[in-house]
Amino acid sequence: MMVCHCMKISDGDIRSAVDWMRAADPDTIITPGKIYRALGKKAECGGCLPLFMDTMRQCDSFEVPEILRGLRRATGKETSNERRRQGY
Fold first, then answer.
1. Do residues 49 and 32 touch, judged by C-beta distance below 8 A?
2. DSSP 66
3. Residue pair 39/56 in contact by the 8 Å Cβ criterion
4. How confident is the model at residue 29 (pLDDT cuts 50, 70, 90)?
5. Domain boundaries, the chain
6. Which residues contact 49 (CB under 8 A, 6 or more apart)?
7. Using DSSP, how many helices (H) and how many strands (E) does the chain show?
8. Of 16, 51, 41, nearest to 30 (Cα)?
9. Which one is predicted more confidently, 83 or 24?
């Protein structure tokens, strides 16, 4: 199935790129931009992005590496000022 008509990217191309990236580096975060670069292409209009993302998520090897899971959880006190002085 054709996912991106502008760049002629199929769902098979996306799955192959995800599998290749995961095999090359098991701890990498896979993004649409990395997939485009792996395929030697650039995003053109962005209309395919929702379908592109759905195809990525359906790949068996598309998952957050174990070492990176849970990073969003707050581990301590979060500050809103990023340690800047009050008048900054």
1. yes
2. G
3. no
4. confident
5. 2-67
6. 32, 43
7. 3, 2
8. 16
9. 24
